[in-house]
Amino acid sequence: MEGYTHSRHSVYRLVYHMVFVTKWRKPAITEEVGDFMVATARRLCAGYGGELISGETDRDHIHLLVSLPPSWCPTDAVRSLKTQLSKEVHADPYYDSIIKKHIFGDAPLWSPSYFVATAGSVSLETVKGYIESQRTDEHKRKYEKRSMYWKS
């Protein structure tokens, strides 16, 4: 049974595609911050007994392909990941200063909304390929000035 996780009392394959967007979709995630977030998400998923299969960021969102044990409810995993990613980014003065250029005051890093779907309806390779294409030039959005609060 290749691709399945075996535990003492269960065999499972629960894979979720998660997307979190920054507050007001501000382009606050640089490549450096994104790499830190993906590494942190990998460590957090391992701590939950799961695995980060793939993760990638764009300027205003993060995609995660996560395998979790059945004991983790997807909404609890999303809440924990968003909270911990935000705390750890803000705990580092360098990353916090980058984020604060776009998200001011005490506003949270993440929008309260999120996307989560099981990855069973399409092949894992398709979802993984999509996530890994986030930083490619053809995927990048054209950021344009939309309000008086825009910061370069």
Write the layout of secondary structure elements.
Blueprint: E1 5-6, E2 11-12, E3 15-22, H1 31-47, E4 51-58, E5 61-67, H2 74-91, H3 93-100, E6 110-118, H4 124-132
Antiparallel strand pairs: 1-2, 3-5, 3-6, 4-5
Helix pairs in contact: 1-2
Task: Report on the architecture of this protein.
- The chain is α+β, with helices and mostly antiparallel strands and 152 residues long.
- The chain has a single domain, classed as 2-Layer Sandwich (Alpha-Beta Plaits).
- Helix content is 34%, strand content 24%.
- It contains four helices and six strands, in the order E-E-E-H-E-E-H-H-E-H.
- The strands form two sheets. It has a four-stranded antiparallel β-sheet with strand order 4-5-3-6.
- Strand 4 and strand 5 form a beta hairpin.
- The longest helix is centred in the middle third of the chain and has 18 residues.
- The radius of gyration is 16 Å and the shape is globular.
- The model has no long low-confidence stretch (mean pLDDT 88).
